[in-house]
Amino acid sequence: MRVAVVGGTGRMGAALAWQLSKKNEVIIGSRDPARAEVAAARLEGVRGLGNLDAVKAAETVVVTLPFDALGSASDLRDAAKGMLVVSAVNPIVLRGGLLVYGKETGSAAEDLALALPGSRVVTGFNNIPVRMLQGELKGRLDVLVAAESKKSYEEAARLMRTVAGLNPLYAGPLSEAGTVERITPLVLNLARLNGTGALAPRFVSRAEVGPGA
Ligand SMILES: NC(=O)c1ccc[n+]([C@@H]2O[C@H](COP(=O)([O-])OP(=O)(O)OC[C@H]3O[C@@H](n4cnc5c(N)ncnc54)[C@H](OP(=O)(O)O)[C@@H]3O)[C@@H](O)[C@H]2O)c1
């Protein structure tokens, strides 16, 4: 697939660009094309362009913008029409010493879907700490995908499976995106409060842990 990473010069964007570039053609997007070129030059076979040109050159989009910057996504509206757009965006704020979900209602992915009418926005990669993506994955990591249709989920899952170790799971329609995004502050707090180092959610089946068959 030809994948544009919007906000791809950031920590999460660059890590995903690297992981995805092993099996896909990746274009890093930035507000500043020169910054995108610098980030892309660190990765083999990756190009860097302005965010809009990156989307124009792609078939699929991954968005790794800060939540506060989502308003700028409406500039991509025409270019992203009909495309699968994977949102890794989490609204998180620090309150009373804890990280908490930063929206009263809805979700970042639903906000993005409103900014990009005609695109197929799904969640993806939200709960995976960037540090786990900066090297080869040694084990399985689940990727929760809220998607308006099963077809969009399956398209996102095909992209995610191009990264060895990633295991996409369908989380239901886009109205479930807030549930998916809320897991991120939870795992960040769990890691800090329990001194475990970075954590990511991994779901186990009864077949794995029993009891019985
Ligand atoms: N870090 C993680 O572990 C992690 C894990 C899962 C999900 N996420 C999510 O991924 C997103 C990015 O996180 P990050 O840690 O990669 O952040 P980051 O390092 O700050 O990168 C975000 C990128 O977005 C662009 N940007 C910043 N402000 C902008 C604005 N006002 N308008 C347009 N573009 C802007 C910047 O690129 P240019 O300046 O080049 O345009 C920047 O490189 C967040 O929503 C976060 O919740 C992060």
Structural write-up:
The chain has eight helices and ten strands. The chain is an alpha/beta fold. The strands form three sheets. A six-stranded parallel β-sheet has the order 3-2-1-4-5-8, sandwiched between helices. Strands 6-7 form a two-stranded antiparallel sheet. NADP nicotinamide-adenine-dinucleotide phosphate binds at residues 7, 9-13, 30-32, 35, 64-67, 69, 72, 88-90, 125-126, 128-130.
In short:
This protein is of the alpha/beta class and 213 residues long. It has eight helices and ten strands. It has helices at residues 11-21, 33-41, 51-56, 108-115, 130-133, 150-160, 177-194, 206-209, and strands at 2-6, 25-30, 47-50, 60-63, 84-87, 92-95, 98-101, 120-123, 141-145, 166-170.
Shape: globular
The unreliable regions are none
Q: What's the helical proportion of residues? A: 25-40%
Whole-angstrom Rg: 17 Å
Number of strands: 10
Biggest sheet strand order reads 3-2-1-4-5-8
Written as H for each helix and E for each strand, in order along the chain, the element string is EHEHEHEEEEHEHEHEHH
Chemical compounds bound to the protein: NADP nicotinamide-adenine-dinucleotide phosphate
Biggest β-sheet strands, sense, barrel: 6 strands, parallel
Mean pLDDT: 97
Number of helices: 8
